[in-house]
Amino acid sequence: MSDEETIEELPLELLPLDAWHRARGARMVPFAGYEMPIQYEGIVAELEWTRNSAGLFDVTHMGQLLLSGPDLDAAVEAVLPIDLSTLKTGMQRYSLLLDENGGVLDDLMVSRWPDQLYLVVNGATKWDDIGHLREYLPDDITLNHLDEQALLALQGPKAVDALARHAKGEHPLAALTFMKFGRFAIAGHDVTIARAGYTGEDGFEISLPAKAAVEIADLLCGEPEVKPIGLGARDSLRLEAGLPLYGHDLSPDTSPIEAGLLFGINKRRRQEGGFPGAERIIREIAEGTARRSVGLALDGRLPAREGAEVFAGNDKVGTVSSGGFSPSLGRPIAMAYVDSAHATDGAALEIEVRGKRLAATVTPMPFVPHRYYRRS
Amino acid sequence: MPRYFTDEHEWIDVDGVTATVGITDYAQGQLGDIVFVELPAIGTNLDKGGDAAVVESVKAASDVYAPISGKVTEANEDLEEDPALVNTDPEGDGWFFKMTVGDASELEGLMDEAGYKAFVDGL
Predict the structure, then answer these.
(1) What is the reported pTM?
(2) Domain span including residue A315
(3) Tens digits of per-residue pLDDT, A66-110?
(4) Taking a C-beta distance cutoff of 8 angstroms, is the pair B121, B52 a contact?
(5) CATH number at residue A218
(6) Nearest-CA residue of chain A relative to B52?
């Protein structure tokens, strides 16, 4: 047998929790320039634990950036299609880094801190993102790469119970709702906690000093609800949740409208433009796109992977961008870009895998319902 | 009945002119949760080192190669219903297929149990 995964040849950085992961039986693989834990006891068991209890994910490879300076909002709105006039302190929002043609350079989170904007960008793209932001932001905007901060995600229905025992703040942790964040202390260390994540479950992302990572990871995994979870399960969780992964479902060759990320282009910006790629994106909003990202539920058990071709009869109508076996549903699922004529819920298509045609049905996403904590 | 191993982590039990093929316990541990096994059709002619089967785990598809040349005589139908047998009993009920021994001299380059154990310990 042979594993088809490719191995990066670049020198790899070690996470602050590297030894901690290994001591807990993690298998480490190269990813985004780091040795990352891909799994501990197994993807299916880890995914189920996260859906039923709480999983701790080390996502320190992601880039944490802090922007400050004069006329910060106007400067950032020239680079991102975000409406910062409606982003109040303590709020977080999804946004997109776009090139001049509206192609996606990265997807990211933007949070407003007092007098600052805090960004979380993808690990594999963070150096390019920093270069792009530095090039397109005015020189008097300060970009601080918080590379001495670790980032841990605690995800799952019991995450709030476990974290509330340790997070002390001006307000109780329960006061945070989905896409809000606040400053807290854990074991005396200053941290910021956002109620957000990449699993479709309720959960939190905790930015903490790297030197406190072992102490805080030990505290959280000391709670009966919590186990460490690897990147493998994280990828299956996000696919079940219908969340795109940069470099697979998003790239410079995809526009946010094709990708179904209209919500990432805030309403005022759709009307006013003034962001990279605005011309194409505003046109696509009005006229539609030739292809769209859809969810596909496959019959049988054989998964279709990224790159598999999608057919309607004899016509090739699309390509799978992410695919795998859904442990929660017990069947294969996929995300694919397909011609818009076939991108309607219930459309019967086929995916070709090693010369075989697999029946697949266009299905609304998420495949597994989101369970975010929203309070009216 | 002698059992041989390949450096691609297949095992092969030889019983006269026929042989049974599967993947090793080490291999299943590396692959993780197996969700589908694509087996060769009966009558397929296999070449030593050529593609013989595909194992799909949650994350990835991996090829399984023929340890020796020969013709497929039987495929393990139980894997269709329960591919996780490869995880729970890889070197027993989780066997993949049976084949003829086309050229017994091809077995000479394979490892025995002790040799394979030393090989895995060195990985």
Answers:
(1) 0.94
(2) 290-376
(3) 999 999 999 999 999 999 999 999 999 999 999 999 999 999 999
(4) no
(5) 3.30.1360.120
(6) A1
